[in-house]
Amino acid sequence: MNALLLRDMRLAMRAGGGFGLSLAFFLIVVVLVPFGVGPEMGLLSKIAPGILWVGALLACLLSLDRIFALDFEDGTLDLLATAPLPLEAVVSVKSFAHWITTGLPLVLAAPVLGVLLGLQSDAFYWIVLSLLLGTPALSVIGTFGAALTVGLKRGGLLLSLLVLPLYVPTLIFGAELARRGIVGMDVGTPMSLLLGITFASIALLPFASAAVLKINLR
Amino acid sequence: MSLWEYANPVKFLSFSGKIVPWFAAGAALFIAVGLYWGYFLTPDDYKQGSTVKIIYLHVPAALIAINAWFMMLVASLIWLIRRHHVSALAARAAAPIGIVMTLITLITGALWGQPMWGTWWAWDPRLTSFLILFLFYLGYVALWAAIDNPDTAADLTSVLCMVGSIFAVMSRYAVLFWNQGLHQGASLSLDKEKNVADVFYQPLLMSITGFVLLFVALVLIGTRTEIRIRRASALLARERG
Q1: pLDDT tens, position by position, A96-109
Q2: Which ipTM score applies to this complex?
Q3: Which listed site, A56, A204, B95, B96, has its alpha carbon 20 to 30 Å from B160?
Q4: Looking at the 3D structure of chain B, how many domains does it have?
């Protein structure tokens, strides 16, 4: 499992710049929003948690098809499926690698981009916390979508259509957690619900993803 | 006679061919009577005026939109557990109907909301959940359309339907948490106290019955079409091969 994790991370960081791409995309989304809504800092800092969350979500989406596509094309996935490691574990490791190479950098980049949106420094904590708790769910749910569309030639657009509705609850609770934290309201409810989604997805979705992958490899 | 017998497409075709006209005729009758009764023979509401009459389209469509997804879930489970081919095709046939019903609900709701709430759209939990349901339907249909191998497509969409159901229910409660509602409570419930007034209630029931019959008829027709498409493609494959 460690070998697979390391391999996936190495591939993500080296091959074709997939690693920096989603970060750059995140940056561009955040830079574009002020052009759209105007440079007024008060408004921007008010909608900043939402922008950062939506931006992170889209950036995450962008790199999803890399989870399985290359391995599917060159046959690595068939080998992994016949390996002694259960496919559920392979899927989990792959989504974990995706989170480390995509989710985590986004979490770390969020405060920097928050500066552009006029966030106060005490708001950074809530942004980072909510993204840290929510992005693992995005990776795991995205892995399920990637597993569904792995056999398709042009699965990219379809992948977005399938995955984005599944992201709705995570987005709602994550952004709500950040918003409430920033204005100083009680965060217990959204935080426990967000954590619930994250942990339940990590625990259960790999089974669905592995089942789907088996169908696709048939 | 059992459900499993109709896993045989020939039996399903002959049986459904017999009952489709009845369902279709029943649907036409009930919808015509329900709508005529509702639109021309009931009084205007004392607060909402004549806009109340959109209920005869809005509520039945919403009911079908939700239950079509539920039917797809059950049909998907039957396919996954028993490899009941007709069941998988029925799930596929139900999805476009669900899309249309969701759209009807959203559009009639907007038409009603403009004069009553003063806005076409509000980010109310019910409205938002329907929009999300619409997106789920789109994804489901798109996945069916994207995959060539019919059995693979049936398997994948079934899993998507199951996972999607869980997330759809979660989204429903997430948006409840996210925003306060503008939409009124349920129009119908078994608890009679809360129901709409009797003058509106009876034609509404007629209309709902009509919509349910219509849904069954359309699903049966859609399933028959799917079976024939699959036969035709099998014949073509044989001729080529």
Answers
A1: 988 988 889 899 98
A2: 0.86
A3: A56
A4: 1
